[in-house]
């Protein structure tokens, strides 16, 4: 195994490292040595995860040995106050997070390929790790409450798996010495009896590196339960391209009318239950008056929201963030009284859970959401964080009837427009380094400004592929010469939709195997396909039929529950030898564009049909832009550093969505593919500057559609795949290209006639 000396640290790497991998590891170690933050972009396929692990663990190993192989542990009760071995040895804990457990599973596989064996564990939810026969069938807070209820010392019926956990961990000090995943923890629990969930919690106190989804760090309640010694720790956010949105959402809340109605109903249930207990068993531990006060406050809040003056259903009612305290002051809710109300809600949750256990029911306690909202609002004594918020009340549909007759159901929202609020908690706790990394962080400057963190170490890495493995082009016009522009003014034009459809017919014929087509929104996707399926007077076949002749289509569903079957359908159609592949019609920011791997035959080309700007009329988008513009104006007035404007943020949100979508193809060193931008706006220099750095050197703008067909055909004919990996689908492309060569040979030196041929060919495809 090669060893590389990087900034004085010996880094063991399983393979011969590329130059871009050495540069990436150098940046990681620079961040760790200087205890500063890093923003690192490296395209998928460059070995980013393995580089990150090897560099971080090599640095950690240079400070002192790992905790593996030690028989004496800092053990204590699972439910006691947590402490970490790292704190005792003054060595930093590494917390490695990613968006999902499936992504973390891949990270752990990469750890197995390295020579490093730190003490490790992966954290999961009860939903993933619970093996209790009854509790594992529950979901969400209902499951958490049921688990806590069965794990209490005073519980009449205690969980047998929980009671075995502490002893099992003490008797097996080797746990975590080898990489373990969620499935490994489940096997331990199923085979030997201890609770996998609490095994992971117990091990987290003594590990060198901890793996978890990022919400475990961002959500205050999750973070508090970890019990990590934060001082000088290292936090890694892999696949961090969505982090700003996740941070903002974690610091915000929405309170719809239906949820508030359900909370009022639960408060009434608590009144009835506590009165029944007093009458039947003389149990006076629960005071019905407390729940009556809770119900009265919720009813008053409901009326307060209903009385807010909304003049425009489109704009709703908006006030600065501190207005929330005025609204709650009418309920006599302050920092002091809110704390008391939270205590009452927690007692109510226990009471409701005990009643559900007796009735063998497992529904969610909605009242706990009110407690979470109050904790968010009253988290700081001086309420300083409220300046980064906006209060918004809007009317809309609700899944539950509004109790106030004649009033449309309303939602009270308190939206955070400073994602840095969540991240600043780590600085307060003395974290050493925060490393954010992804294949698509560009545009970087806006990303850093949004999180309000200083990132002295930054990197935009090139790809490890060669120039003959990528075709990247801006297609400004279609087969008939009409411009491609999916702006709001043009996207509903029948002419535009037909021109786009005819272009996709051409691409479906040329591109082998899998083709991904991304639209700016579901609306544009639906309208385009509707147009393509309609009969055109100039042709006997529809555009949709001609697309299907070359590639079998699959459409991304709006419902998440239908997505797995759509993926299976796409893979099945790819394997079908009766056609030359499949085409997946999807949307930017949808599930297809997020984290899925369309390597090799599953994705030979990606088409971007427009610039996916967020919906301008969405109240959250509108208020975000207004907030940033106000911040920018204030910055200019005070002669401070220029910060991101609303318009700048708006454009960069679209660019980041594009970068994420095009990253679905070319997933490894030997992969190849085409990136096709079917919108003339991508010819703009400013728009191109927002595209990931690794794509820009290969990007060319084409003013004629015939040029696109010619160069794209040549790419798929003469590229790296002309070796033994060529498939039947590409043989059709080769035959077509050979026919083109014959035409060229007959008509040389009239080179321009070659392009005329392609225009004729395109028009034939359009007319068929």
TrEMBL record:
Composition-biased stretches, type Low complexity, lie in 75-91
- Alphabetically ordered keywords of this record: 4Fe-4S, ATP-binding, DNA damage, DNA repair, DNA-binding, Helicase, Hydrolase, Iron, Iron-sulfur, Isomerase, Metal-binding, Nucleotide-binding, Nucleus
| Region (Disordered) residue spans | 67-91
The protein's location, in the record's own words, is:
Nucleus
> Belongs to which family?
Belongs to the helicase family. RAD3/XPD subfamily.
For whether the record's keyword set contains Acyltransferase, the answer is: no
Q: According to the UniProt entry, where is the signal peptide?
A: none
Q: What is its main location?
A: nucleus
Taxonomic lineage = Eukaryota, Viridiplantae, Streptophyta, Embryophyta, Tracheophyta
**Quick check: keyword Transmembrane in the entry?**
no
Query: What reactions does this protein catalyze?
Result: ATP + H2O = ADP + phosphate + H(+)
MF-aspect GO terms? 4 iron, 4 sulfur cluster binding; ATP binding; DNA binding; DNA helicase activity; DNA polymerase binding; hydrolase activity, acting on acid anhydrides, in phosphorus-containing anhydrides; metal ion binding
Q: Which GO terms describe its cellular component?
A: nucleus
**Domain Helicase ATP-binding, residue spans:** 7-289
Protein's name according to its UniProt entry: Regulator of telomere elongation helicase 1 homolog
**Mind listing the GO biological process terms from this record?**
DNA repair; negative regulation of DNA recombination; negative regulation of t-circle formation; regulation of double-strand break repair via homologous recombination; telomeric loop disassembly
The record ties this protein, via InterPro entries, to: ATP-dep_Helicase_C, DinG/Rad3-like, Helic_SF1/SF2_ATP-bd_DinG/Rad3, Helicase-like_DEXD_c2, P-loop_NTPase, RAD3-like_helicase_DEAD, Rad3/Chl1-like, Rtel1_ARCH
